[in-house]
Design a protein that fits this description.
375 residues; 33% helix; alpha+beta; 21 strands; D-Amino Acid Oxidase, Chain A, domain 2
Length: 375
């Protein structure tokens, strides 16, 4: 009896997660990627697997499932990963109040705790001690080097699970059990479109019918820290708490948001909240901003990077703050509050899209759940 077959379009994190979930269940999987390697949003991020940002319930459980798959994959494939956790740092009483409430609500279901200033400083030499009132510790966060890990996962799937990859192959047409690139065609039992905003090209009318927008974010990388210094956990300013839905359970968040709307109006206008994560070479990835719309200015805004770095200094004290790279990324996001888009475009053709900025955190879990439910 021949294996069931599947074609996956897109070799970013959603495509790789889908390919993995199918391959471990005995499918012969073929992945098509229009570029010679993944170069989109999947490599242009912090590399953070970020359960703390997800609310208690199905999304947190999905994030933790995703984390476990990431860890297993990294261990089996020899991919660098760092289970460092995270620190959100408070310099005002209202910030500390939100953290205290978050810890009270969550500590029975996840690894988190409110720290005093001394405990926070013991966690990381990168924390700015001046005016520090406390911090929220979470032990669930893990860092990978996204720009290396995504390609390494593809190699791992090819070697361990015999997933076939066609690079530099842009799929121009999709039908039931069939995809085409120009005059060439391939067939499979099922088709999965996991190519981010590019599915607009294959199904323009369907794309237009959903509440999908595109988010542009700006990011930077700081030089490797001297003498091999490690900052430990990913470090976050308190602005991040109004960005991630995981914090919405804290009643004090509403008042904090009101203050930020006054004190940080320009930051909120550009969707800026600031986090820092260190890779295996000691370099620190910093960001980010959020601009929404179907078409984006391809050029970075220098003032946004300046604002990010200015806020970064309020909660960190890094030995070397030289900026060695800047870039932007664009991902698809649902406008109606949905956490993803999973839809059958036609019989046997499934689109998985719209995870917003949570692709690294949720994709492995989401695709595992989708495929497991079907099979």
């Amino acid at each position: 009896m021949s294996k069931p077959s599947a074609i996956v379009i897109g070799a970013g994190i959603v495509g790789l997660a889908t390919a993995r979930a199918l391959a471990v269940r005995g499918y012969q999987v073929t992945v098509f990627e229009r570029n010679e390697r993944a170069v989109g949003a999947s490599i242009r991020n912090f590399g953070m697997v970020w359960p703390i940002g997800q609310p208690i319930g199905p999304l947190f459980e999905r994030a933790m499932l995703s984390r476990s798959i990431w860890k297993q994959t990294c261990e089996e494939a020899g991919i660098w990963h760092d289970e460092v956790g995270s620190l959100h740092l408070a310099y005002h009483d209202d910030e500390l109040e939100v953290m205290e409430q978050y810890a009270g609500i969550n500590q029975s279901v996840r690894d988190c705790a409110l720290l005093n200033p001394q405990q926070a400083l013991q966690k990381s030499p990168g924390v700015n001690a001046e005016g520090l009132k406390g911090a929220l510790w979470s032990g669930t966060e893990m860092i990978v080097e996204a720009r290396a890990a995504i390609g390494a996962v593809a190699n791992y799937l090819a070697e361990k699970h015999q997933v076939d990859f066609y690079w530099n192959t842009a799929i121009s047409r999709v039908g039931t059990s069939m995809v085409a690139s120009g005059s060439k065609t391939w067939h499979a039992d099922e088709i999965f479109i996991c190519s981010g905003v590019e599915f607009e090209t294959l199904y323009p009318e369907l794309f237009a019918s959903f509440g999908i927008t595109k988010c542009k974010l700006q990011m930077m990388r700081l030089a490797a820290q001297p003498n091999g210094e490690r900052i430990g956990p990913a470090l976050c300013g308190s602005l991040s708490m109004i960005h991630y839905p995981g914090f919405q359970a804290a009643p004090a968040l509403a008042n904090l948001r009101k203050r930020y709307e006054s004190d940080y109006a320009e930051y909120l206008k550009w969707g800026i909240h600031v986090m820092a994560a260190q890779n295996h070479t000691g370099e620190i990835t910093v960001g980010d901003s959020h601009e929404y719309g179907l078409v984006h200015d391809p050029f970075d805004k220098e003032f946004i990077n300046f604002m990010i770095l200015k806020y970064l200094k309020t909660f960190t004290q890094f030995k070397d703050t030289q900026v060695i790279q800047t870039w932007n990324g664009i991902y698809a996001k649902m406008t109606g509050g949905q956490t993803e888009l999973v839809v059958e475009a036609e019989p046997g053709v499934t689109i998985i899209n719209g995870l917003g900025g949570n692709g690294m955190t949720l994709s492995f879990g989401l695709c595992e759940q989708i495929i497991a439910a079907r099979l």
